[in-house]
Amino acid sequence: MKRLIAATLLIEKCGTVADIGCDHGYISLYALKNSLADEVWACDISASSLNKARKLLQDYENVRFFVSDGFKELPYKPDTALILGMGGYEIVKIISGDKCADTLILGPHNNAYALRKALFMLGFGIVKDFCVCERGKYYDIIKASRTDKNAAEMPSEEKLFWGIFCDEKSPTLKQRLEKEESKLTGYKLTEINAEKLRVVREVLKWQR
Predict the structure, then answer these.
(1) Are strands 137-146 and 124-134 parallel, antiparallel or unpaired?
(2) Which of 66, 75, 174, 178 has the fewest CB atoms within 10 Å, i.e. is most exposed?
(3) pTM of the prediction?
(4) Claim to verify: residue 112 and residue 57 sit in the same structural domain
(5) 131, 138 Cβ separation under 8 angstroms
(6) Backbone CA torsion sign across 127, 136, 114, 198
(7) Which value, to the nearest 10 degrees, does the dihedral of the CA atoms of residues 89, 92, 96, 97 take?
(8) Are 158 and 95 within one domain?
(9) CA distance 106 to 112
(10) What's the domain count of the chain?
(11) Does residue 82 register a pLDDT over 60?
């Protein structure tokens, strides 16, 4: 739940919040309980999963439910969308389509590098980017807002891999990097692994 809490704390008051891939609907519940939106949209590609959210949110009137693959079946573009618990490439696919919100709160399970790169290519600027540790696993949390496409300069490889603000000290990120360094030094030093190790050690310099 730590990563869910970290993501929900990034929601700012707006007209519509879309919880994409809502599953049980915990994020929708937080937004409703805290009056963070005039209307909350609970969305899931699975009708059976959406039924879990219907049960959890049955006491609220300002919530709508959509069986939808990403934004496809939504009536119009929401102000803010949360997409958590999916792989980075899957999130990229979702945010590349129509009706994508202008403010995104994302929690990729993997391939955060590809997601950060896609955000900049799609005209988003990243305003929050940090990791949390839950049960020994690290999760990236990213908040992005649409900006002038020409103004979104592509960050360095270090920042694409480890977070746009990885040059700012973070005990959690430092711990994550130290574990990654230890893991990579135990691998065969291929060209790819050597580059990964170089990047990790470069970012570690900023954390010490």
Answers:
(1) antiparallel
(2) 75
(3) 0.94
(4) yes
(5) yes
(6) positive
(7) 70
(8) yes
(9) 10
(10) 2
(11) yes
